[in-house]
Predict the structure.
Amino acid sequence: MRGFDQVNDEHENIAQMIDQLRAKVFARGRMAFADIKPEADDIAETMRLHFLHEEDVMAELRYPALDEHRLHHKACLVRFQELVSGVASEGFATVNTIDDLFSTLLDDVLKADLGLKTYLYEKGLIV
């Protein structure tokens, strides 16, 4: 299913972006907020666009839990921004900080999106 495959590709892309940032922070032990801000902003914008695309795909599929999923996406973006704000306040990021960013993505991919996958299996749209 094309739309669903694109959504999965987007998940992988965001995970790679976060992993690349994690590798940079890991190599240095920690990084100043100013040094990670451009990448954090890119990740946040990529997540925002991904969530909009995923919601469009869900709407096309008439996914019955779309409204709840939209709320979850909004909460993920708020959580991500809270984490970035915490880094800004501290002035630096550590590997643990980046792991928290990654867990925000995992919360969407591994938890919230399971309902969609179940729906698609039940409808026979994926096997």
Observations:
- The beta strands are 30-32, 92-94.
- The radius of gyration is 16 Å.
- The chain has five helices and two strands.
